[in-house]
Specification:
The chain is α/β, with parallel strands linked by helices. The protein has 2 domains: 183 residues, DHBP synthase (Alpha-Beta Complex); 116 residues, 3-Layer(aba) Sandwich (Rossmann fold). The chain is 28% helix and 20% strand. It is built from 10 helices and 16 strands. The strands form 2 sheets. An 11-stranded mixed beta sheet has the order 1-8-2-3-7-4-6-5-9-10-11, sandwiched between helices. Strand 10, helix 7 and strand 11 form a beta-alpha-beta unit. The relative contact order is 0.14.
């Protein structure tokens, strides 16, 4: 490592993993430092999952409420045993055998040795095994479970590059590992297991359709305590700095009427290149990608949202994708980016914009 002001930037390309640098990153984690590192989903802000001082720093640096649990990352069965109480339920074992390493998070009983702060005091822990080669190398080298939420300010757009981490957290973390863009671009799918099968608590990089090939799957139906075992359950999350409102798929496909009330507003409409909307002339259209290329759309979603937010607007209108598979995760992120305010028809937009502009307190 070179001597420089923190955060220390360390480049570890995926196609050339320098074991010496991996060892130094692992050493930083063992010393209780905060390390931003890539996973296949987004960049995480990691620390030793058993170091309570480091865990406290993660919450402070992100501005994350103590009620939002962290995901613990493991590389092998020994690490898993340190954070989980008892044997995996059969369905959880089946899913782990098939999807790990990969972007699936299992909510399981917490080992009492794991600091309660990691799980926000809940008796369960969210745990996964990342497939990103650099993340795997770091985990194996340091030999400890790593607690890691996304490496950005709480509630903001998730980071898919080291540049995003630096822009969001500045010198809040000690080390940033740069391995380029992440591969998936959406967070992991979070599930819990009960007597009826698997419950999806957060849609993510593994669609429900893939899970259903192995077991019975249903989505959680409420925002109660059951859902709080998963991170990312807030009504407002993954949000741009500009206030935003979501609209249902194709809401502006056949025209928007006059909408004179928006004439003096800088409105950005984030939609899809393969189904351009009919919006007022005063609005600006910016593509999120093609709804017909859902994998690419998902991979680039946060990059697109950051690009659109950087343009600057009085309000951003986010059109939901309305697609199955990864479309559920995309629409979950867009809905929460808009504070869970979704408009079905253009004629309902005025009331929604009035509400979101009045409530916006973003600095």
């Amino acid at each position: 490592m070179t001597n420089q002001l923190k955060p220390e930037l360390i480049s570890i390309p995926v196609d050339h993993i320098d074991r010496g640098l991996v060892s130094q990153v692992a050493g930083a984690l063992l010393e209780g430092k905060l390390v931003a590192f890539p996973t296949e989903t987004v960049y995480g802000l990691g620390c030793d999952a058993f170091n309570e001082a480091a865990i406290s720093r993660v919450f402070a640096v992100k501005g994350r409420p103590a009620t939002d649990p962290l995901i613990v990352h493991v590389a092998d069965g020994e690490m898993l045993d340190r954070v989980v109480d008892g044997q995996l339920p059969p369905v959880a074992r089946l899913l782990a055998d098939h999807f790990w390493p990969g972007p699936l998070t299992l909510v399981l009983p917490r080992n009492s040795a794991l600091p309660a702060a990691v799980t926000s005091g809940l008796p369960s822990v969210a745990v996964r095994s990342p497939s990103h080669p650099v993340a795997s190398a770091i985990l194996l080298e340091c030999g400890i479970p790593i607690a890691a939420p996304s490496a950005n300010r709480f509630g903001r757009i998730s980071p898919t590059s080291a540049e995003h981490v630096l822009a969001d957290l500045g010198d809040g973390c000690d080390v940033i590992v740069d391995s380029g863009r992440t591969q998936r671009g959406l967070e992991s799918t979070v599930v819990s297991v009960d007597e009826d099968g698997v419950v999806v608590l957060r849609h993510g990089a593994i669609p429900m359709e893939e899970l259903r090939e192995h077991c019975s799957v249903r989505a959680v139906e409420d925002e109660g305590s059951h859902l709080k075992a998963s991170p990312g359950h807030e009504a407002r999350h993954y949000s741009p700095r500009s206030p935003a409102v979501a609209v249902s798929p194709g809401a502006f496909a056949s025209g928007s009427g006059t909408l004179e009330f928006t004439a003096k507003l800088r409105v950005l409409y984030a939609g899809y290149s393969d189904r351009p909307p009919q919006i007022p002339d005063s609005w600006r259209f910016e593509p999120l990608g093609s709804a017909g290329a859902i994998d690419e759309l998902a991979r680039n979603l946060y990059e697109s949202l950051r690009r659109i937010d950087a343009i600057g607007a009085d309000v951003i209108v986010l059109e939901l994708a309305g697609e199955a598979g990864l479309g559920r995760a995309i629409d979950d992120r867009l809905t929460r980016a808009a504070s869970s305010l979704v408009v079905e028809r253009p004629e309902d937009l005025q009331a929604a914009l009035t509400q979101v502009l009045a409530e916006d307190t973003t600095p």
